[in-house]
Amino acid sequence: MRDYFRACRSSHVGAIVLAVAGWTALSCGGGGGGGDDGPSFRCQDSAVAADAAALRCGQIRSTGVRVLRLVLGGPTSSSDIMGFNLDVVFDSTVLEYVAGSASGGTLLNQDGDDPLLAAALSGSDPGRLIVGIHRTNQPAGVQGAGTENWVLEFCLRASMMTKFDPSLVKIENAEAVDSLGQPIAGIAFSDQLLLSVQ
Amino acid sequence: MINEFQRLRLKQGCRRLSRECRIFVGIVAVSLLLAPPAAGGNGSLPPSPGADSQPSAPDPSQNEQKSPQELVLLVEAPRGVNFEKWQAALEEHGVQLRHVFPPAGGLVIVEEGQGAAFVESRVPPGSRVYSEGPIGTDAEGLQASREGRILLRAQLSLLARDQLEQAAPPHPLAGDGLAPPPENRMDSLGSCDAYSQYRTTSAYLLGRSSVNVILTESTGAAESNSENWTSNQEEAVYNKIIQALNQLSAFYNLTSTLRPTWTYHFYFGRTDARARTEYEPIQHPYGEESLWIRQIFDQLGYQTDPSIFEQGFHFAGDTRSTDGTSWAFTIFVVNSYKDTDGSFSDEKFAYAYIGGPFLVMTYDNDGWGIARMNIVARHEVSHIFNARDEYWESQCNCLESSGYVRYLNQNCESGCLLDVPCIMRSREDSSTVCPFTRGMIGWGDSDADGIPDPVDAGPETELSPVNSDPYGSSSLTFLGKATSPSLPNENPFWYTCDINIVPVKKVDFRLDGGSWRAATASDGAFNSSEEGFRFALTLGAGNHTIDARAADSLGRLDPTPAAVCSSRWYMDADADGFGAPGTAVLACEQPAGLVAVPTDCDDGDPLRFPGNPEVCDSRDNDCDGVGEGDADFDARLDCLDDCPEIWNSDQLDSDGDGIGDVCEKDALFAAANLSVAGFSLNRIDGRDLAVFASALGACPGDPSFQPSVNLDRVPEFLGAPGACVGLSDFRIFMNHFGSTP
After folding, report:
1. Which domain holds residue B685?
2. Based on the structure, what is the number of domains in chain B?
3. Do A118 and B737 touch (CB under 8 A)?
4. What is the ipTM of this complex?
5. Cα(B711)–Cα(B694) distance, integer angstroms
């Protein structure tokens, strides 16, 4: 249920990288899918503005499994972004998190750092994926220079592939933090992604 | 007659028996051979002294031993060819030159059933084959060299087949077989060193011999020059010598590949200064031979040798080496044409040293004449190859012996076991070789298997693996040694060196009784009596047997091939059923104390071997590289620790549930809940991760180190890596990520 992914330049932490790598599944499983014959796992979203973080639709990896990406619109006003904390909240009656599917994006490792990633369902709420991703032992954070900066991604699966109406995937307890561990007020999170099976 | 029982007894017993056995066999063989084969010559012909006859070529007295079916083929070598390789190529294709005249070519006496076409189809490119001698332009190449001219005339001489050999005159050879002086015999107790081997130049009359023929000519410097060679006389001499040796070859009746052959080198004093002496040899007794022989050997390059015998052996050894032959000797022919009695001043006219290195003949051989020189020559050459005289005047006796395989002289004219015509007699027809002479010159065949006694030992093979422990590799290289062993030299004159002229010809190997395949000679070619060999095999799993088998040039196979097994057995010192790698021994059967599997990680501990269940004893019982460790460095083995991941040397377990207090769920949650701000108060989430990430990799003393993040609580003073924030802490943290109280 828990994902973590990181690397670090310090030698004794290097062992962590090796050990953890085997535990980290970066795929949502399978390939292709999403054919036209049966029910379709659909995703709706919209572009993000600068300094706005939101989920966006990724590709379908296999039947009923879709990649969702957390992106940060940019260029960002902050140049000291060290990590993100957030809860991804979804309707657990029709959706489920694909264990081990979370992986880091390109925003936080742009200078070679391997951020530490953790993703696990809440012990008390199966529809809440608690996620954290943070740079490690770096003196400063980074800036999102692109219009859409990829923070991380994970996969959700339509549990039964039975039809359901568009369901909002929300973000709660979300914050971007700087190198002092303080929330970055200028970065806002928005809920905008809808998933459905039609 | 010998019966089957006797024959069986001989075959079973004589391979390893001693001289006495051979002598016994010779005696038994007499019973079989008392009725001698029909002689080729006519013993009743009256003597026809030829002392006054001036010869003309070809000589009219020829070749009584030759059957009408035999052909004498002249094979001309390509000009400029490497002669030794050319001859070897011929032999490789089954064409044996009986008379060899380097570099011109040689003569082949075609065996029954073969024709000229057989030879023509087998000669190397550029060679020419003539059945009646080339004429016209075809002969120009041969006429251009002295050896070519001799070759041409020798063929014509041997082709003149209609003449009967003249019988021997009534007077004997007069003590012609001489024992070499004692100081020139090899020490019978000595070892066969290289020098002794070099000097053993005529141990038995089998295979290839080199013949140096020297027709001495006086310069008149020391005394009057009374004799002068003519070219006709020279031709008569070499034709008679070639005829004599051809007859010796024809007398041989065992395995054909060992039939004697002859490679000639002629030194004519008339035209070759090396064959000249200041003395006129015929005017001296034989005892003064060193006067003129010394001078000739000096001129041939052997000035430093102390005696004419040392010179003779030295010369023979060099000639043998140059020609690639097995044996060599020298024939001196002294011109006696104008001499009153055709003899030396002490009445000897021909003599030879038993076992070599040379013999001496006169041109007209006392009353025997040039026409009978072949009879004299084959008799003297037999002495060179250890035959003893059998005529009464030689004072022979029945119990004297000679030969590489020692035979008694039981055909001596002294009331011995046998009394039959023989080339070692002189008064009657001597166109046959009696059993005891056969034995002395190496033609005895005690077990009647067609293989002459001196070489009647088959090849032997030894084999051993190279790789000491090829575990993990399926390829094995094998080395071995193939030998064509020498039987002991029993010759009373030349004891020292044991020699086998039959080389190892090939070595084959096979895997698990499959088809035989050829091994490789270590030196590139199988051509000597001792050869190293090698081969490689890729072996699958399981036990395998590898055989190696040598064959010699006679086609004999080692009847007991060398065999090794590829099964590898390993030392198992702790007797746990698993051996130590790197201790392999190859054997067919499992040796005591060794096992087949070499995967023990500790051959000194019987409680450690692959598959052994792990028990809590601090050992790596199953050899998987992981033993019962102490992950948290609290001096408690993990298997005995109530909280293996977190340092708790006190092992405190307040509720007695077997789980240490620090490992209780609440305690772990409290420890991992690194941030209690806002939504992170009662859960472990990204904020806690942020705290952990900020300290990850930090060690005590580092600015970013936070003791609370050291979740495994390994204290710094232990100096263990657990004191830093690392993997073990991360494991603990992640085991609780997302959890709530």
Report:
1. 638-734
2. 3
3. yes
4. 0.85
5. 14
